[in-house]
Amino acid sequence: MMGPKRAPFSGVVEDFKGRVACYKQDWHDGFYSGFRILAPTLYIFFASALPVIAFGEQLSKDTDGALTTVETLASTAICGIIHSIIGGQPLLIVGVAEPTIIMYTYIYNFAKNQPDLGEKMFLPWAGWVCIWTAVMLFLMAMFNAAVVLNRFTRSKNFVMAIPHDSLRNLQDLFSVPPSYIFLAIVPAAMVAGLYFFDHSVASQMAQQKEFNLKNPSAYHYDILILSLTVLICGLLGIPPCNGVLPQSPMHTRSLAVLKRQLLRKKMVRTAKEGMMNNDTSSEVYGKMHEVFIKMDDGKNPNAVHKELKDLKDAMVPEGNGEERVPDVFDPDKYVDGYLPVLVNEQRVSNLLQSLLVAGCLGVMPLIQKIPTSVLWGYFAYMSIDSLPGNQFWERIQLLFITPQRRYK
The Bicarbonate transporter-like transmembrane domain covers which part of the protein (predicted)? Predict the structure, then answer.
């Protein structure tokens, strides 16, 4: 995954080169999917927006209205758009998460009880916490800190108020007493450490081995982008974002379903056409093999042979490719059974869902009518939905399965 890096920015440079090579393809694959891309987009939009709305309500209550759902949605949209365009791993979903809410609550309570700060200086002081956090994350990216991962298997009026509040926050930054500016380093260190691991783990979960991703990772580079977005959020006076779970692996899984649908449709049609033309089994398999390579962006033929070995064995009896495809071979059934996991790696779904989150700012009166219990209930559903494929959950299930029925 990542080897030892010594020179400053060597990890960032390597990640950047790897992602630049597939940047154009990231957009092409997204737009090539057509309207089908809307399914995973809407799926991850609801998975991303609803928890952020719930966290916004919690933050508004804990900070006496200093920060609300408007700010959490704005932050999620801004950071999501930035990450989807210039981020390294486009499958990674960013958003305002519960740890950020907890940290901002502590920061608010501390500032409120300080005579030199008070509620008025809460956001400016939180801005300095973000600035120091951004500096620390920048240094982590600079000195390749991500190598440690190898050791771990309101209404329209409210919306229009955001720019005004952001400008006021920039002015108030320099009204914070110097002693508190440097004191902000303490919470910043905790936030930086938390964001570093949360962001990296979410990225890891979005690109697990079983997803068979073909594009390289970008852990170092993404930490650099994270430092940029944290800085922007601090200057704007809104809570920052980081990589979130379980939305990130849910995003990848939904795109795997999309890729499978696109590939299955073409391979089944190709197989049926070959069988109707009385082609030999080797000819039918060869055409399906070509479709697979073309759909998988010119993947190495040798690697494709390994991935389609089971399908070939089912189509070509005993290695004799001169006979017709066996009558028992049903393309719909066998393609489904032997098609390997493939993910439609692209940036469009992440960008679109971020734009939809931004659109929520225009319907705040409707959002405010959603019962909080519905929001937290959907969050609970997301947690349950993310269990299939989770190694920890699967190992727990083994405790209730007799040894004779376990996979060897």
Answer: 8-157, 176-260, 343-403
